[in-house]
Every structure is written in structure tokens, then in C-alpha cells.
Write a structure and sequence with these properties.
The two termini are 31 Å apart. Helix 2 packs antiparallel against helix 7 and helix 7 runs parallel beside helix 10. The chain folds into two domains: 189 residues, no CATH class; 82 residues, no CATH class. The chain is an alpha+beta fold. It has ten helices and four strands.
Length: 295
């Protein structure tokens, strides 16, 4: 550990101006990679929440018709639904509740209630029960004309497909960030080799092994990577908290706050470690390869 955080005694790499801004570049890359990772786990958490909220829940919609008594039609629909085995917690939503559901999207509830809104019924499927939803929808439609049973499954499938696509894009972004980071480290290491070529030749003449020289380079660049990765990760977490705070202040269902499960926090904490390991391996391979060509 002392060697890792110590200086390179012969090469004096700490005085090298060419790699002075490498921590800033690494911090930027880690920040972007952390945001992509946060997006991956947040979307995965959102998919779980959607599935939990939608699966087992149904909605019955009765179209607005000013020529009939909608309240009586609602009561009949509730009675039909309660007679179907496997369905429980059948509850008709009032007009006020329907307006409140639409308020985040359409505005004031007093204005919404003036619109020709459909009437809604919430239905919950009993646990471990197999309900023939197609038969239930047909029975409801035949006894209550204009009543439509919605399972939400098509909507959920489309949202999951969109979420998986976004996750794939985030994973590709992380891969590209990793490739660019490696390229930057390669150029920085080769630049350092060129700038210290005379000292390296002297070390070779006095019997220094390639592994000894490579260790000075890899420890130095690993330190720079660590000093850049930690602030980049901290800023990404801070941005996530700010976004979560802003999403909570919206008080709307359009945008959900980014949330992380325990595995996500572990993955985030591993990013600086992985960056240091990647830097160490990359620099060691580059330096040893360059030293062999110099001999």
C-alpha cells in the first residue's frame, strides 16, 4: 500500500506534466459510466414496480353516455364482477377519484369533471387463482354493454420493451466509455515512456528489470485513476440525488425518481476498483511491450 501511494523514486513521474490532467479525464469517464449504471438499475427497478402494480390488477371502463344512468350501470357491472370466481376487491371509482387520477396530466380537477369522462372500476385478482380473463370480459360485455375489461398487459409489455431498449443503449454507452478510457490510458502511458526514455535506458544499464520499471508506471497511473474515479463517482451519486429530489417535487406519475437496489450500490462502489484494475493491467502491458522493443 505504501508503494502504491508513494512516489516513483527514479523516474519522478509525479513531475510529468503530460499526465497531470488524467484524473480529470478519468473523473469524467467514471461520471458518465456511473450515470449509465444508475440508469440501468433504476430502469430495472421501475420495471419491477410496474409489474408489481399491474399484475393482479384490472380496470373496467364504462364509456360515458349521457342518455343512460351511469351509476346504475356501474352497480350492475360491480355485481357481475363480484360473481366471477377469482376476482376480489371490486370497487367503483367516484367521479372525483377519476378526476384526481387525470389531474397530473390534464390540470385542475374541477375542470376535468366537466368533461365526458368514462367511469372506472378497480378489480384485484385473488392470489394463486386462475381467472379466465377472456371469458370474464365476454360475460361483462354481454351483461353490461359498453363495459370494457382492461388487463394492462399490452401497455406493460410495450413499456418493458422500451425499458429494455434503453438498458441496452446504457450498456453500450458503458462499453464505449470503457474503450475510450483504455485508449486514453494507453496514449498517456506511451507518452510517459517517450518522455522518460533516457532515464529508462540508464536504469537498464544499471541492471533494473522491466518489471521494476513497469511497476513504477502502473502504480503511478493507478493512483491517478483512483484520484479521478472517486470524485467522478461522488458527483454522479450527487446528481442522482438531485434528480430524485426534482422528480419527487413534480408530484406526477410521468417521471419517477431514480432508485437503486442494494446490488446497484455495490456495482457503483466497484467502479473505482475496476478502473484502478483496468488501468494497472493496461499500463503494465503497454510498458512491458514498449520496454521489449527498446532492448
Amino acid at each position: 500500500m505504501s508503494r502504491f501511494f508513494g512516489i516513483s523514486p527514479e523516474l519522478q513521474l509525479e513531475k510529468d506534466a503530460s499526465s497531470r490532467y488524467l484524473p480529470v479525464v478519468i473523473a469524467t469517464m467514471v461520471f458518465l459510466a456511473s450515470l449509465a449504471l444508475i440508469g440501468l438499475f433504476s430502469i430495472n427497478s421501475a420495471i419491477g414496480n410496474w409489474s408489481a402494480a399491474v399484475s393482479g390488477n384490472l380496470t373496467v371502463e364504462i364509456a360515458h353516455d349521457s342518455s343512460i344512468d351511469l351509476s346504475a350501470k356501474m352497480e350492475k357491472a360491480v355485481s357481475v364482477l363480484r360473481s366471477i370466481p377469482g376476482l376480489e376487491n371490486v370497487r367503483a371509482l367516484s367521479l372525483d377519484e377519476t378526476a384526481e387520477l387525470l389531474a397530473p396530466y390534464l390540470g385542475r380537477t374541477d375542470v376535468i369533471k366537466q368533461l365526458p369522462l368514462p367511469r372506472l372500476i378497480e378489480v384485484t385478482i385473488s392470489e394463486n387463482s386462475a381467472v379466465d380473463l377472456l371469458a370474464a370480459a365476454k360475460k361483462l360485455a354481454s351483461e353490461v354493454p359498453g363495459a370494457v375489461l382492461n388487463t394492462h398487459r399490452p401497455w406493460l409489455d410495450k413499456m418493458i420493451l422500451l425499458a429494455r431498449s434503453v438498458q441496452t443503449i446504457a450498456a453500450i454507452i458503458m462499453m464505449l466509455i470503457s474503450i475510450v478510457t483504455v485508449i486514453i490510458i494507453v496514449f498517456a502511458a506511451r507518452t510517459g515512456m517517450v518522455m522518460h526514455q533516457e532515464i529508462i535506458e540508464v536504469l537498464h544499464l544499471i541492471g533494473a528489470k522491466d518489471s521494476y520499471i513497469a511497476k513504477q508506471f502502473q502504480n503511478y497511473f493507478a493512483r491517478l485513476s483512483l484520484f479521478g474515479a472517486l470524485p467522478g463517482l461522488a458527483i454522479a451519486i450527487l446528481v442522482m440525488q438531485v434528480l430524485a429530489w426534482l422528480a419527487d417535487r413534480l408530484e406526477a406519475g410521468l417521471i419517477s425518481a431514480p432508485s437503486m437496489m442494494f446490488e446497484g450500490w455495490i456495482a457503483l462502489a466497484m467502479i473505482p476498483v475496476l478502473v484502478v484494475i483496468l488501468t494497472t493491467i493496461t499500463v503494465r502491458l503497454i510498458v512491458l511491450g514498449s520496454l521489449k522493443r527498446m532492448m
